[in-house]
Amino acid sequence: MLLGAYHRKLLEPDTLKIMLTPLFRCDKDYFANRTGTPWEVNEQLGYELVRKDGDLDGYSATFSLVPRLKLGLVVLMAGSRPQNQDVVAKAYSHIIPALERAFREAKKILIPPPNPEPYIGFFTYGNITFYEISVGEDGVLVMQQFGPQIEDLIPERYRTMKLNYLLDRVFRVVFEKQYPCVLRVSTASVSLEAQDGQLFNFYVFDKQGLSPGFDAPGLNTYNVVRIDHRPTFTN
After folding, report:
1. Which terminus of the chain is more solvent-facing, meaning fewer CB atoms within 10 Å of its CB: N or C?
2. Residue 77 backbone dihedrals phi, psi, to 5 degrees
C-alpha cells in the first residue's frame, strides 16, 4: 500500500510523499542518519532505506521499505534481536543486488507512438544542443544528440537514446545499454543518469500535423524547438 502496489487507493499521493520523505538530519550518535514520519532513514548500496524497529517482551520486528525499488521487507522475530549484526541490513545486502541484476537482465519492451510522423525531424535547445528524432526498425522513436558542445562532452555511443511512448504526446527517455552515471571530460561533467527515465512532453501538433517542440521538465529544459533541417557547424 505504501509503495503504490495495492489494488485500490487508501492514502492520497501527497500523504504518501509526506510519510516517505525524511524530515530531520540526526546527530552522529543516533543510529539513523535522518528521521521521517515515522521512520528512521539510512542509505544502503546507494538507496534510501526507511525502517521502523520495535521490541517488546522478547519479540522483535522491523518494517522497512526501499521506495526507489518498490521493495519492502518485514522481519518478525520470536526472541531478542541479535546484537552483533543487523539482520535487515544483511538481508538487503543480498536482495538489492539480486533485484538490480534482474532489472539489468530483463528485456525492455518499448512502445512506439500510434503515428511517428509528428515527432520526426530536427530540434534544438537554445542553438546549443541539437537533436535528431527518427524511427527505429521496431517503430520506436530514436533520438540522437549532436552539436559541437555535445560532441566535446559525450562519447558517440552515449548520444543515442530511445523514446518510449506513454500517452498523449508524452515519452520517456530510455538508454538501452549501461552507461556511466557521470561522464567527466576535463573540468566538466555530464550526468547521463539524470537523463535516463525523464519525460519529454511534446507540444500540440501544428497545421502541418507536426509537433513544434517539446519540454523536459525534469531536466529543467524548456522550449526545445523544431528546426527545418540539420544545421552545419564551423569552427
Report:
1. C
2. -125, 130
Q: What are phi and psi of 154, to 5 degrees?
A: -115, 125
Closest CA to 222 of 123, 104, 81: 123
pTM: 0.60
Q: Which domains does the chain have, with CATH numbers?
A: 13-105 (no CATH), 117-227 (2.40.128.50)
Q: What is the pLDDT of residue 176?
A: 74
CA gap 90, 226 in Å, rounded: 51
Question: Nearest CA to 22 among 2, 37, 3, 4?
Answer: 37
Q: Are 52 and 61 in contact (CB under 8 A)?
A: no
> Which of residues 156 and 185 earns the better pLDDT score?
156
